[in-house]
Specification:
Elements (H helix, E strand, L loop, with lengths): L6 E3 H10 L6 H6 L9 H6 L1 E3 H11 L7 H8 L6 H8 L4 H11 L8 E7 L2 E7 L6 H21 L8 E3 L9 H7 L2 E3 L5 E6 H4 L8 H35 L7 H7 L4 H10 L4 H19 L4 H7 L5 H12 L3 H8 L1
Parallel strand pairs: 5-6
Antiparallel strand pairs: 1-2, 3-4, 4-7, 5-7
Helix pairs in contact: 1-5, 4-8, 5-8, 6-7, 6-11, 11-14, 12-13, 14-15, 15-16
């Protein structure tokens, strides 16, 4: 299966919605993914939204042909938007330290992507991995991510920031003028990685607000949050994977899943409640993920997709799928080709 099981911080969504021009009702857009109109930065950072809902929302924003959208998003996002994590990024001693902290704590923002350094003769590639099927929303999200990294470095650096090079895995857009103006370096498309090449000199640049004492306090706090996130995400993913494995025999009961995970039904209920989640929510998200993945990546008939997604009747599957994605399974598959 190649279904995307995971979540992203709602703060990403709030910043995406803020960057979209001509939205008639941004509050309704937020509500469509279960978010209130307002939230403080710490709460918004911790609120999580299912990955598929995140990508569907980008599609809903209608910004496919808005070349400037990723860069408005990046300029509108600040470290302060991400609570304690944002402050930790600002107070690292150097820009390399800022990026190392982002790598370490990125799980606090999403479990659907990650960053890493890869050494280069001139410095290092800062690589962004997002292992999801190709779609226009992913291309937009990847451009937003790399633009936001450069914006972050420019906000925390004592000196001007310009990468040596930027690369994207997607095809070259029709207009790349805004890309070149923003990054101010060479840009390649259809590359192996989504990545930014940064010089040794730039990585060693001092941060404007480097503070060792405050950093120690913040990192201790973030390490505790990271441990909790690893445990909680692990449970949600375990539940989803267990449900996905059982769907061909019908939707499993919570008691069955709890037994597979080595705990009582009551304990599973309680632990999910501690995560502000429910078993039924995870079941619904898993069925969406499985159905979407099968339609995009297999030649199974619609009847087989319905069966493998846990539906006894194709008509029930059709109704559920249209509720999830506002189109029929057949139309979704055709649009994915």
């Amino acid at each position: 299966m190649k279904g995307q099981i995971g979540a992203v911080s709602s703060q990403f969504i709030r910043k995406l919605v803020a960057a979209a021009e001509n939205l008639e009702d941004p509050i309704s857009v937020l509500a469509s993914v279960g978010l209130p109109a307002e939230a403080d930065s710490e709460t918004a950072t911790q609120q999580m939204v299912a990955a598929n809902a995140f990508y569907d929302l980008i599609d809903h924003l209608g910004v496919d042909n808005d070349a400037e959208f990723p860069f408005r998003y990046a300029l509108g996002a600040t470290p302060d938007d991400f609570g304690a994590l944002g402050l930790a990024l600002k107070t690292a001693e150097t820009l390399r330290g800022t990026l190392e902290r982002l790598i370490r704590y990125f799980l606090l923002l999403t479990d659907t992507a990650n960053y890493e350094f890869q050494d280069h003769a001139e410095g290092a590639w800062f690589i962004f991995y997002r292992p999801v099927p190709d779609r226009s929303a992913v291309r937009i999200a990847n451009e937003c991510a790399l633009a936001a990294i450069v914006s972050l470095l420019r906000q925390v650096s004592k000196l001007p920031v310009a990468p040596l090079s930027v690369s994207f895995t997607h095809q070259r857009p029709a207009n790349t003028d805004v890309h070149h103006r923003y990054f101010d370096c060479s840009i390649s498309f259809e590359a192996e990685h989504n990545a930014i090449l940064l010089s040794h000199e730039l990585l060693d640049t001092k941060s404007a607000l480097g503070d060792e004492g405050l950093s120690r306090f913040l990192l201790a706090h973030l390490d505790q949050n990271l441990q909790q996130a690893q445990q909680s995400r692990s449970l949600e993913i375990q539940v989803k994977q267990t449900v996905a494995d059982a769907l061909s025999d019908g939707v499993p009961k919570i008691a069955q899943v709890a037994r597979r995970l080595g705990m009582s039904e009551r304990t599973l209920h309680r632990r999910l409640a501690d995560l502000n989640s429910t078993f039924q929510t995870l079941v619904d998200e898993t069925r969406q993920d499985v159905a979407q993945s099968l339609l995009m990546h297999t030649d199974y008939s619609l009847a087989d997709v319905a069966f493998l997604s846990g539906f006894a009747e194709q008509s029930s599957f059709q109704r559920a799928f249209k509720r999830w994605f506002e189109q029929t399974p057949a139309a979704f598959r055709k649009a994915s080709l």
